[in-house]
Amino acid sequence: MPRPVAGTALEPAVRREPQPSFAEFVLVIALMMGLSSLSIDNLLPAFSAVRSEFGIADANRMQLIITAYMAGFAIMQLAWGPISDSIGRRKVLMIGLGIYTAGTLLAIFAPSYEVLLAARAIQGLGAGSARVLSIAIVRDRYEGREMARVMSLTLMIFIIVPVIAPATGSAFLMLGDWRTIFMSMLGLVLVVVFWFGLRMPETLHPEYRRPLSLPAVASGMRRVVTTRASFANMLAMGLAMGCLMTYLGSSQQIFETDIYKLGPLFPLAFALIAICMGLASFANSRLVKRLGMHRLSRFGMVGFWLMAMVLLGLAVLFQGRPPLIYFGIVMGVAHFLLSLTMPNFNALAMEPVGDIAGTASSFIGCVTTLMGAVIGAVIGEAYDGTIFPLACGYLGLSSLCMLVLVWSSEREAAAAAPAATPALVAGE
């Protein structure tokens, strides 16, 4: 009897997993992360239209559109990672994107502001899967400085989304109403579903599959908290996220309506600052292998703290309303420096816990996102028509972040971290 040949009737062909190139891998991960960013930033120009349609008297209440999304985004992250550690990354991502799609459809047909907020929370619940799994997948394949490099390249592409998001949101408002923006979100999530489904293999190492149980999840979270490097960099990341969410929540009022009254030029001002962040991520991808994650993240945070001091000085000097050129330059430099910290904080927090990447990414993502959402909401509610709340928030948060970094010295973090786990590098 002849030996069976693969692909003949005697032996079915073995399905080969797709193997995306490095560039395609980065693009897919960036698109997954970009889904959450687009879901925030392209709605900013629509605040006035939503407020008018639903008769919202208090302009500060419009920030709940972001807060509701971020709350759902944070809470569900606790579940996505542990589930993916048990059944794999691909299945969990598809479930999460299905929930995001349901929330998007509800938002398109929302009859009231309260239903719109509920839809945004549902969107956030689903989008949390893309955030958690994008980081877990990167950690499955890379480690150390190479992981930081991939995260920087991913964030560089990811930040392009905020550059164009307010402009595209404005364009959709010209083509229709604010509901048209949600239709664009529906189109993007379908692209992610099909591209990921066709081209990305399962990346969870078989030996790292964990039982889906509360004790196993609690054990993973406890390990993050008791590993000094992971815990300290998680807190630092959360404080940095608080700075970013503070800016996102008040940017529309600062640039478009209250202080600088830029109107339709608001997307341009927003894009210029986002470009600075993208340039920082590109620079970080080039520098991190030479200088290291610790050094770059510390340099970025000290620089951001100094720029926060300058921003507060401008607020005092100009009664909370400095000239646009001064404010724009300081914000551009500050956010450039802030973007040197976040990918490195993330990589440093994930580095010691690669064997529980899903659970660790969930817990770290939940904590940092909740910190960002709560901090952004509190400082956003304090907005008073000046940049004082923003400047004070930046200075206070960056000061706390530096205290956390001092508490966790590099030597202590290295001593506390367990041995690095092997990573499946692309092409191996």
Automatic annotation (TrEMBL):
Gene3D superfamilies: Multidrug resistance protein D
Keyword terms, alphabetized: Cell inner membrane, Cell membrane, Membrane, Transmembrane, Transmembrane helix, Transport
MF GO annotations: xenobiotic transmembrane transporter activity
Gene Ontology cellular-component annotations: plasma membrane
Matching PROSITE patterns: MFS
InterPro entries: Efflux_drug-R_Bcr/CmlA (IPR004812), MFS (IPR011701), MFS_dom (IPR020846), MFS_trans_sf (IPR036259)
PANTHER family: MAJOR FACILITATOR SUPERFAMILY
Family according to the record: Belongs to the major facilitator superfamily. Bcr/CmlA family.
Protein name in UniProt: Bcr/CflA family efflux transporter
Organismal lineage: Bacteria, Pseudomonadati, Pseudomonadota, Alphaproteobacteria, Hyphomicrobiales
